[in-house]
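pinging the channel bc i need a second pair of eyes. not urgent but kinda urgent?? the chain im working w is below, pasted from the shared doc
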Amino acid sequence: MEKEKIELISQVSLDINEVKDLDTVMERILTNVRRFFRADAGSIYLKQREKLKFSYTQNDTLKERLGPGKKLVYNTFNIPINNESIAGYVARNKKVVNIPDVYNMDSSTPFTFDSDFDRLSDYKTGSMLTVPMTNQRGEVMGVMQVINAQDEQGRIIPFSNSDEAFVRHFATNAGLALERAQMTRDILMRMISMAELRDPLETGSHVNRVAAYSVEIYEAWARKKGLDEDEIERQKDILRMAAMLHDVGKVAVSDMILKKPSKLTSDEFDLMKCHSYLGARLFSNARSEFDDMAAEVALTHHEKWNGKGYPGHIDPMTEKPVAGFEGSDGKPLPRKGEEIPIFGRIVAVADVYDALCFRRSYKEAWSEDRVLEEIRNCSGTHFDPEVVEAFFSCHDVLRSIVNRYPDETNQPS
C-alpha cells in the first residue's frame, strides 16, 4: 500500500511539473492531492509579503449543488501570517497541522477555526490537513489545505497520521512547481510592464482579468464542443499566458497615440492597428506552442466575425498580405468567421468585456447590464455566436474574476 502511495505521489508530482501557468498549477495541485485523499474540498493560499492570499479553492459538495458545468464563485481575501488562524500558523511555523474535527479541537492550540464560511454556505467542515509548501531554500511559497477526507463509502473520516509524510513530500514538489510558475508569471508581467509604460490602460490587472476570462470562456466552449479533457487542460495552460500578452505590441506605438485623451483620427487609428501584427512579430521563429498561440492571439484578437476587424490576412514580418489573400487594392483581405482562430475569437470577447466594464480615458465604466446587452447584440457581427454563448454560460465566474484582479483607482460600475 505504501509503495502504491509513493508511486502515486511521484506521478502527480511529475504531472504538476509539466504545467507552466500559475493558476493552472494551483488547480492541478489541489485536484491531485484531493484525489489522493478522496478529499471533498481544499484551498490554496499563496504567500504575498507577510500575508496569505486565498487564491484557489475546490469543493465537490458545493459544486454538485450548482448543477452540471457550473463552477464555484469565491471571494479573494488575505489573512495575516500569525498563530491565530490555522493557515497562518502553518505558514509561520512551517508545520503540518492535522485536525480530525475542526469543531472539536484541543483548547490548547493557539489557532481557531473560522466557521463563517460553513455558516454562509451551509457546508460542514470536519477533518482538515494543512501543509506548508516550500521551495528549495525552505521559504514558504504558500499553504495547502485539504478538507474532509472520505472513506470508500463517502463518509467523512480523519486524515491518517501515516499520510502526513506523503503529503509533506507532495507539498515540497508543489512548492517548487509554484515557484517555477511564479517566475514565469513574473517574466510575463515584466513584459506587460513595458507596455504599461507606453499605454496606461495596459495594466497588470487588466491583462490578468482578460487572461482569466479567456480560460473560463475557452473551457465552457471546449466542453460544449466535446473536446478531450486532457486537451482542454493543456490548452488552458498555454492560453492563460498567451492571453496576457494580447496587446504587447503596443510597446512599438507612439505615446502621442496611446496617451491621447480624445478620439483618434482615422490616420492615428491606422497606426494603432499596427500593434496587432507587431505583437505577433515578437513571437516569430516559434520554439513552442506558447509562441504559436501568443502570436496568434496578438495578431487576431481585433478581428471581427463579420470581417470588419483588423489586421486581416497579413504577414506580421513583411506587413504584406498572405499569399492568396490580397485584395484588389493591394491590402490584406479581412478575416471573417472561422478564418479567425478560436483563441483570437475568445480573447476578442474577453478584451471587450473588460474594456467596457472599466473606465477609460475616452469613456466611463458601463453598467453590467449595458455591457451584457452589448456583448449579446454583437453576437454574429463582432463576435462568434458560439463564443458568446460560452461567455454567458460562465458569466457568474467571469464577474468574480473582477474581484480577484481589481484596479486600485479604476473600478467597474
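so The radius of gyration is 23 Å. and The chain has two domains: 2-180, 199-404. — does that match what u expected or am i reading it wrong
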